[in-house]
Design a protein that fits this description.
Blueprint: E1 5-9, H1 16-29, E2 33-36, H2 44-53, H3 63-83, H4 89-94, E3 98-103, H5 106-112, H6 117-127, E4 135-140, H7 143-150, H8 162-178, E5 183-187, H9 192-206
Parallel strand pairs: 1-3, 1-4, 2-3, 4-5
Helix pairs in contact: 1-9, 2-3, 3-5, 3-6, 5-6, 5-8
């Protein structure tokens, strides 16, 4: 299988990390090199984003301005994620021949940092030059399921509220209505193994 850039998306606690880890295991068993490279990154900007999301650094009280600041930061971190010379996505794919699995990409910025059409257009403008992944996988779970899973989370992040996550779900639906890339939508309430098998079957059908 040619080296692929695969992105897993979904609201908080949809199961992205679990499925990324299982997919890595599958690809390695097939004899391929594979790595998880998620956003925010471990770079300087990515670390700032993580602190801001957990209220460990003060950004700004105004929620709209906060979303705008985060959109700028995520775009800058995303450029680093793709193109840095040490472990950028395209170095890993083209030079090192790795499959790269990312939990979150520019779709998350559109979903989380836009509260209306004007803001959506603004975030889209920041991200429009970033290439689509080879495959986008969306894990679709109901809001109440996500909120129930979040009750046991170690850290509470600023976007993990009912109102915000409902808006995120709505934004994801808007994104996928016009998305032209390769998209696999999976029911996120299925068992971990069932979801994994759906992903594997799709890869074997379209990328083998």
């Amino acid at each position: 299988m040619q080296p692929l850039f695969i992105v897993l998306e979904g609201i908080d606690k949809a199961g992205k990390t679990t499925q990324a880890e299982k997919l890595i295991g599958y690809l390695i068993k097939q004899g391929d090199a594979a790595i998880i490279s998620s956003e925010p990154t471990e770079g300087v900007i990515g670390q700032l984003i993580r602190k801001a999301m957990q209220n460990q650094v003060f950004m700004i009280k105004d929620q709209e301005k906060f979303d705008e600041q985060m959109a700028y930061l995520f775009a800058a971190d995303r450029h680093y994620h793709l193109y840095n010379d040490q472990d950028g996505v395209y170095k890993l794919i083209k030079q090192d021949r790795y499959h790269v699995i990312a939990t979150r990409y520019y779709f998350s910025s559109l979903a989380y940092n836009a509260n209306n059409q004007e803001e959506f257009n603004f975030v889209y403008g920041l991200n429009q030059r970033f290439p689509n992944p080879d495959l986008l996988i969306y894990l679709d779970i109901p809001l109440d399921v996500a909120l129930s899973r979040l009750e046991n989370a170690l850290y509470k992040e600023v976007y993990e509220t009912r109102e915000k996550l409902q808006k995120v779900i709505d934004n994801y639906q808007q994104i996928f209505q016009s998305y032209q890339g390769q998209l696999l939508t999976i029911e996120g309430q299925n068992s971990i193994e069932q979801i994994h098998q759906e992903i594997v079957a799709y890869l074997e059908k379209y990328f083998s």
